[in-house]
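Milestone M4 deliverable, item 7.
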Amino acid sequence: MGYNIENYRRVRTMLEERRLSAMATADARLAEVHRLSPEVAEIDRALASTGMQLFGEATRGGPDLAARIARVRADHESLRAARADLLTSLGFSADYTDPAYTCKACRDTGFVDAAMCECMRVALVTEGVRSSGLGALIGRQSFENFSLKYYDHDPADRERAAYALARAKEYAESFGPDSGNLLLMGPTGLGKTHLSTAIARTVIERGYDVVYETMQNVLADFEYDRFKSGYGETAQRGERYLACELLILDDLGTEQTNAFVVSTLYHLLNTRLNHGRRTVINTNVSGEELRTRYSDRITSRLLGEYEILLFSGNDIRMQKL
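Output delivered:
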């Protein structure tokens, strides 16, 4: 498991910029206070010498060492109290010159005692959502709001949907290197995209790199890589589909099938299988249509290497209308 390296760098940069901004603001405020109050400036010089005083006392040693150190610390606290009173008298808060870090727990470093701070984890999840391609979907679709009431007209439809919900949730919550692949099959409007989004959301929150994209957009990126000229952008757009820890392909079967499509799809699926990278695919196409549209090499991988979750029933969008 590992966060997307570009997202990790982006978050670290963001936190570092926050930290430096807070420190720069504190330095400017300190200079302002020192201009207004020589007394505060004098106290700050005295406070800055506390460390050397403690070191000096420790070096001297002696039976009364503890008492001397206690006096130095008491003097330090007395100076801090006097400083706070002076700042208040000037119309400032007692912590006016302290850096106002966004996260006080880690001081905008991203870590607390070598462990990742919650603020950094949340930022990485946010970046994971942004880079996954989910957009606004992830805010609306989750396991919690996947309703089985739309399948109540037929016990068999409800049973399939209930199993798909339970299995998708289990898959997401236990996702790891040993997870398999999922193929969600059934007519349009039956919740396949909803469950795929919920899977992506949970897997991203657990720290994995997820890419969610429609088959048409994936093909467009691979087509760009194949036919682009030698000018302009040089990065391979299709690489992220091969490298991410979980790829979710939406709407397989809506694309126009030709030799390039079949070749690209085979390369994508086979590469991910060979490297142990997991894939979730949504399709409105039946098993028989898969055989008709794609080569046996692709069909055998989809039907043999993927766990199939079937959906049946009436279009939920139409039911809501």
